[in-house]
């Protein structure tokens, strides 16, 4: 294996999806995906396309994005960023947000460039940076305390430490808001600190906003591209999988100024070239439905967070009542919970993993029948200990499965 790929260990997703297949836990709160159907109009759009009379929708479409989809993405985002997005030069449709991140990182990071990454981080960032020949520089969000009923807002960056990471070699900073796994929604003030440093040091910002529609009151999603002087240096990433609850469709996108977009296009045109036409057409039609009711509370962009809020509260309560100390997320669909108070109830000696959270989540899946993700996967080697006391649970699940989680945790306790 080329050295830049490290030891080539299985990613946490490969390992835990296999674990779910092998142990068949009664509830899988591991990988983030809904276990119930997307809105009817979304699935119907795909069925209509498959059964419809336009044979060209089964063939290749424009490489940088199906025209009907990029036009709708422009209609959705232009008002949100306060600028008319050029559908054909400032938007790229990708194979999930994954490929948007990949094309942005491979397209902009050169050998020896440094990239600032906020921990915990979506695990593939590290790999992609090293793949590009770049050097990741990590800075952890840290909880202000370990008290009960803490919210994700209390996980913060040390501003001085952040400032100290910027050097002459810094090319890019990767931001993820709303944040996976903590659910932190960065406030305007927090984003201003980041933006000021990016401007001062002439650094690009890659903003992963796949959870943009899952934000709980009183928090508001602020797009860093809308801050003064940031449009020209920001690449923003979104996901149809998250926006419409269809993670298996693997359609994502990036938007940014055309001069920055060119680098993403160069990568995309030579390794993916074009994304599936039927799913792009279906995402385009789904956006048209939502745009037609964008001012109504029925619009899925708002109803999704309303639907998720009681699920979040139920899972937080269940975890709290059963010995965990969860951080209440302000966005996204994961809860990170400290499990250490349960430490003497569970014997981890049969598990051989290096990190405690891997041992805990594996043993817990076998004993309690509930699968969670070990957050140390979201830290660099030198900071993995910061994730070891936690487990990440996904709550975009049917109410009956959240109720089953409660029952299983009570029985296990
Ligand atoms: N970024 C983050 C923070 C994620 O949690 C995920 C997983 N959905 C992705 C990117 C990748 O998204 P997609 O499934 O659209 O590739
Ligand atoms: N984004 C999802 C999560 O964090 C899925 C990631 C994946 O399957 N690679 O769980």
From TrEMBL:
Keywords: Acetylation, Aminotransferase, Lyase, Pyridoxal phosphate, Transferase. InterPro entries: Aminotransferase_I/II_large, Kynurenine-oxoglutarate_AT. It catalyses: an S-substituted L-cysteine + H2O = a thiol + pyruvate + NH4(+). GO terms for biological process: kynurenine metabolic process. Residues 26-403 form the Aminotransferase class I/classII large domain. Its cofactor is pyridoxal 5'-phosphate. This is (apollo) hypothetical protein. It comes from Parnassius apollo.
């Amino acid at each position: 294996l080329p050295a830049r790929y490290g030891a080539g260990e299985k990613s946490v997703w490969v390992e835990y999806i296999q674990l779910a297949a092998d142990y068949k836990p009664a509830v899988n709160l591991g990988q983030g995906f809904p276990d119930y159907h997307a809105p009817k109009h979304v699935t119907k759009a795909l069925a209509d396309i498959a059964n419809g009379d336009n044979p060209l929708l089964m063939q290749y479409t424009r490489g940088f994005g199906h025209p009907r989809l990029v036009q709708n993405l422009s209609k959705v985002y232009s008002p949100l960023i306060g600028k008319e997005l050029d559908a054909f030069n400032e938007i790229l449709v990708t194979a999930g947000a994954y490929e948007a991140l990949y094309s942005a990182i491979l397209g902009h990071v050169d050998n020896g460039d440094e990239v600032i990454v906020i921990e915990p981080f979506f695990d593939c960032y590290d790999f992609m940076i090293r793949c590009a020949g770049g050097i990741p520089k990590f800075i952890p969000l840290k909880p202000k305390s370990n008290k009960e009923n803490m919210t994700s807002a209390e996980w913060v960056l040390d501003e001085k430490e952040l400032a100290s990471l910027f050097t002459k070699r810094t090319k890019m900073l990767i931001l993820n808001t709303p944040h996976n796994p903590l659910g932190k929604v960065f406030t305007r003030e927090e984003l201003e600190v980041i933006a000021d440093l990016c401007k001062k040091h002439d650094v690009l910002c890659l903003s992963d906003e796949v959870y943009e529609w899952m934000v709980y009151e009183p928090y508001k999603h602020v797009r860093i591209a809308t801050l003064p002087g940031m449009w020209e240096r920001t690449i923003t990433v979104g996901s149809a999988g998250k926006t419409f609850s269809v993670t298996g469709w693997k359609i994502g996108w990036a938007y940014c100024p055309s001069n920055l977009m060119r680098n993403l296009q160069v990568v995309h045109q030579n390794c993916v070239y074009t994304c599936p036409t039927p799913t792009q057409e279906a995402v385009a039609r789904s956006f048209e439905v939502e745009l037609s009711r964008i001012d109504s509370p029925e619009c899925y962009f708002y109803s999704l967070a309303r639907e998720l809020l009681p699920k979040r509260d139920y899972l937080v309560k269940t975890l709290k009542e059963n010995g965990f100390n969860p951080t209440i997320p302000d966005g996204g669909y994961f809860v990170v919970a400290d499990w250490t108070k349960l430490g003497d109830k569970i014997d981890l000696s049969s598990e051989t993993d290096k990190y405690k959270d891997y041992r805990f989540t594996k043993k817990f899946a076998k004993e309690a029948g509930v699968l969670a993700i070990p957050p140390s996967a979201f830290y660099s080697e030198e900071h993995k200990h910061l994730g070891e006391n936690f487990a990440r649970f996904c709550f975009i699940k049917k109410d009956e499965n959240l109720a089953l989680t409660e029952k299983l945790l009570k029985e296990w306790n």
